[in-house]
Design goal:
The longest helix has 20 residues, at about 135-155. By secondary structure, the protein is mainly alpha-helical. Helix content is about 45%, strand content about 10%. The protein is built from eleven helices and seven strands.
Amino acid sequence: MNQSTHSDDPREGHHLPTARSGAAVHGRSLSGLRTPQMRLIWSPSTSNAATVTMIEAQIIRGEWTDPDRGKVKVKDYAETWISQRPGLRPRTVDLYRWLLKKHITHSLGNVAVGKLSTAMVRQRRADLLGNGVSISVAAKAYRLLRAVLMKAAEEDHLIQRNPCRIRGAGDEQAGERPVLTVDQVLDLADRVGRRPIGNVRKLSTSSYRLRYQRNGEMRTHPETFATRGAADGALWKLGKDGRAGCTQDRRFRALVLLATFASLRWGEVGPFPLNVDTLETGS
């Protein structure tokens, strides 16, 4: 009489094929796995049951990744990452796409996400710096790639860990900006908005004649010029040298002084209604 026996073996019910045919867990093919653990246990002398048990344990712990999912290219995955990011401003999107096209996908775009290694990322960063890319831009590109691959590792489980593990690669170490002295600020304020008084006219000979104001009188420049640009350049040089009268829109002078001494940004001082008479009288 056949007696029905109950087995507590958790592997019961799983298909345990021979080593020649490969293994499968929950319908997933394991023949394509290339992890170090699989290379150790996947041999004709090792039980297929041990293979299944180990992979099941990795799945339960959330450590197993399907190698087929990691075949997506870095370029395609990064572009999808940018398009799916909520709340990005248009300028931020433009920056991300520029960094991706200019500094990331040039050499890493066709690499599969699952094949990307820390050594490849390190070499790409070294190439950027070697080609004259600033540390600031290289750091921005590295942080973008790190954020993209963080999602691939932690949310989409395409890779086991993020290959962007280079210490300090995402840090920007920009030098301290020079600060203008008070005299330099005042000189800049006097120069901004100044325009020399004069005009340029085209002659019948296709040359250009320059007339400029000096001491309240209009004078004609002794030379003629082949292009309008050359005549304009001569007029500005006369104004710079003090040989031609100048006008100044004093609103620009007020803008420079206000932005400097009130520590205002362009977005704050640009729309500011500047009334020169009010500024001078203090009313």
